[in-house]
Model the fold of this input.
Amino acid sequence: MYSSESPGITVALALLSVPLWLLCSYGLPANLMLRQRSGPVAADMDGSWFLWVVGTQSLATVTAVFAAEPGGEEFAAPAVALWGIGVLLYLMLATLVTLRLLTVPSSPDSLNPSYWIYMGATAITVLAGSTIVVLPGDIPVVRATASVVAGLTYLLWAFGVWWVPLLVIFGLWRHVVHRVPVRYEAGLWSIVFPLGMYSVASTHFGHAARLPLLVTIGEIDAAVAGFAWLAAAMAMTAAGVGYLRRARADSATMGG
Done:
């Protein structure tokens, strides 16, 4: 987000994100669509594909923050446009990923933690929308789209909440039914990010739309996200310590 103490750093990071977003938005899809392949791309889709949406809505959020600054009204139109693109990308990817879940047999390996980004993409879309709806109402693009942005933002917030129990069921199916050991993997952070983002998004949109219930949910989720972060950090530390011990034991064995 924008920092009044270090505006230069914020602007520099925002400018750096533009070419990266263009690469992800056009280069990767073009490569997937045009290259030769032996099977359908949809068979390999998982929750990580929603990073396409996350990147777009991140750019929409920072653009909306610039629009809120004095003299930054010209950023409002690009912010709304990026938000709209992100929403349509989410709807497209949600359809494709859901079809993949329904048509391709699932395995414990395929239902990995990356599917939590499914919900995280809605969360950052809600955050971007809440940043737009609080922009001054006399900006033409805000006046023309405020009700649409606010309405879709609330619907996406609700859809994200609906996904949480299903994602929990995925985890239980993987670890309880199929007895996959619960151990550290980098994908665990794919659970931490959506939980934290949903806390921030719920709180911001609750204040913007004057919905106290969303603020309360955001505050509760902040505690859940904090616990998830702590658990993932402890698991990562334990895994790192275990790796170092094994490496030292292997080195001592080879040296002996």
Residues 142 and 240 are 49 Å apart (CA to CA). The chain has a mean pLDDT of 86. Helices lie at 7-34, 51-68, 76-103, 116-133, 140-177, 189-208, 212-255. The radius of gyration is 21 Å.
